[in-house]
Design a protein that fits this description.
The chain is of the alpha/beta class. It has a single domain, classed as Aldolase class I (TIM Barrel), CATH 3.20.20. Helix content is 41%, strand content 16%. The protein is globular and about 60 Å long. The protein binds ligand PBG. The site of ligand PBG has 9 residues, from loops.
Length: 311
């Protein structure tokens, strides 16, 4: 009876796995604050992609960890930069089975760790960053990315990238806009995952956690600028924002269960303080219930396996 009347059901097709490829790594490197998650070598990356396809999840979101960084984040637009290499590998290995998605942001590639380029006074230069994003979009689409994940939170980034794609021969490449992206402490473990060089914080371009309406407003703006999917991030502490975005959006709404959400549950489970499997499934069910139609989660493959076991 409970199964029959359940309002929310999880399906493996709506799970997306974030993955990290580390340039020059001979073997996968564990991320200590995210037990079970790796910075992949090329070999382990290929194997994990095949595993994700076999698990039947919906897609992967790719991040690159470069060996060298500079002020402009030039590795992001270099066709042989690590993320573009990762994208070509993924498109070739699993491009028909999974939606290959890429993080479109400069923070992994800049030596100062910000999501954009800096003005002379050290502040992030929004409009100069848009020029970099346009070039990055073309580089990613050319590498085979099937969905560009715009996570930098620059104003007008969706319009700029849409225009670059349309005029650059990639009119069919869609955009996932990190619309309701908050300046969150829950990204902490991700900084280790990508060896982030950031010293300060991102509060001048990400949303203040105190403000819920700003998330819905950003989603509406991104939809008007041409986004194909809007996302709320982090997920669990922002279910109210997620519900509001779902109520006003006419395009798909996704959520990103971020590194800190993963780390917290893993730490509690490792201590025997919570039931790991039940807590993971409950957290993702709650994110779906609040309005997300798909969820980016580091547990995507494992959860897909559990769902196959269920009646
Ligand atoms: C930006 C980006 C971040 C995350 C995804 N894309 C970091 C940030 O904005 O500080 C965080 C993901 C996570 O914490 O799991 N490239």
């Amino acid at each position: 009876m409970r199964r029959l009347v359940a309002e929310t059901r999880l399906h493996r097709a709506e799970l997306v796995l974030p993955m990290f490829l580390r340039e020059g790594a001979a073997a996968p490197i564990p991320i200590s604050s995210m037990p079970g998650v790796m910075q992949h070598s090329e070999d382990s990356f290929r194997a994990a992609l095949v595993g994700a396809a076999e698990a039947g999840i919906g897609g992967v979101m790719l991040f690159g960890v470069p060996e060298r960084r500079d002020a402009e984040g030039s590795g992001a637009t270099d066709p042989d930069g690590v993320l573009n290499v990762a994208t070509r590998i993924a498109a070739e290995e699993v491009g028909d089975a999974l939606v290959v998605q890429t993080d479109l942001c400069l923070d992994e590639f800049t030596d100062h760790g910000h999501c954009g380029v800096l003005a002379a006074d050290g502040s992030v230069d929004n409009d100069a960053t848009l020029e970099r994003y346009r070039d990055m979009a073309i580089a990613q689409a050319a590498s085979g990315s099937q969905l560009l994940g715009l996570s930098g939170m620059m104003d007008h980034q969706v319009a700029a990238v849409r225009d670059a794609l349309d005029s650059g021969g990639y009119a069919g490449t869609p955009i996932l806009a990190y619309a309701g992206k908050y300046a969150s402490a829950f990204y902490g473990p991700f900084r280790e995952a990508v060896d982030s060089q950031l010293k300060g914080d991102r509060r001048s371009y990400q949303i203040d956690p105190a403000n819920g309406r700003a998330g819905a407003r950003e989603a509406a703006l991104d939809e008007a600028e041409g986004a194909d999917v809007v996302m709320v991030k982090p997920a669990s502490s922002y279910l109210d924002v997620l519900a509001e975005v779902a109520a006003v959006s006419s395009i798909p709404v996704w959520a990103y269960q971020v590194s800190g959400e993963y780390a917290m549950l893993e730490a509690a489970a490792a201590n025997g303080w919570i039931d790991r499997r039940r807590a993971v499934l409950e957290s993702i069910t709650a994110i779906r219930r609040a309005g997300a139609e798909a969820v980016l989660t580091y547990w995507a493959v494992e959860v897909a396996g559990w769902l196959k076991e269920e009646r």
